[in-house]
Design goal:
alpha+beta, 8-stranded antiparallel barrel, 9 strands, 203 residues
């Protein structure tokens, strides 16, 4: 069978139109596949929880005094002094008005011989910059670069918050006597947490 020139031209035009028609269909299919796949790629893994955010982050400036001085002969003494939380900021936004407080503290200091360890336990009461009174409980060791002693806000603003952080305690030269160590200065950073405690050094 022989096709005329006019018939050949018509077949050629139909072939081109058919190829052009397939291209938009293919492109649409590819775009649809991408749109369906995108949410799955961006979805967070199941079970991942957001990291806790503290109510306050503060600079720690404290002083504790032992009476009598602690030593190998005196392993328990009265503790007095202060714990200051200064230059506070509120990452969670729960208490931006709270910036400073100094707690007067009273409690018990202990000295352990093997290894040599100083520890403190007691309570403190102080007044926030807002005029509100707060109190706390503290317990733990005084070690270089260690976590701060366990602390809990027992009354006032942020009552129930737990406190953690990092401390650098140093025996005060004016408190080192022939009878032992009579006091420490402590600096560092603390965080107030409304529930689960996170890593304070992240803030």
């Amino acid at each position: 069978m022989t096709f005329s020139a006019k018939a050949k031209a018509k077949v050629s035009r139909l072939s081109r139109l058919s190829r052009l028609g397939r291209r938009p269909v293919l492109a649409a299919a590819l775009l649809a596949g991408t749109a369906l796949a995108a949410p799955a790629a961006q979805a967070e893994p199941a079970g991942v929880r957001a990291a806790p955010v503290p109510d306050l982050v503060c600079r720690l400036d404290a002083e504790v005094n032992f009476s009598p001085p602690l030593s190998v002969r005196v392993k328990e003494a009265e503790v007095t002094g202060h714990i200051g939380y200064l230059d506070c900021r509120s990452p969670s936004g729960a208490a931006p008005q709270l910036t400073d407080i100094v707690f007067g503290v009273n409690g018990t200091g202990r000295f352990g011989v093997f290894p040599p360890t100083f520890s403190v336990e007691g309570n403190g009461v102080g007044t926030w910059n807002t005029g509100e009174v707060g109190s706390l409980y503290f317990k733990g060791d005084l070690k270089q670069g260690s976590p701060v002693p366990e602390r809990t806000v027992t009354s006032g603003p942020l009552a129930g918050d737990g406190i953690n952080g990092l401390q650098i305690p140093t025996p005060r030269f004016d408190k080192i006597t022939p009878d032992g160590v009579a006091g420490f200065g402590v600096i560092g950073q603390v965080c107030f947490w409304p529930g689960e405690k996170g890593r304070c050094t992240a803030f």
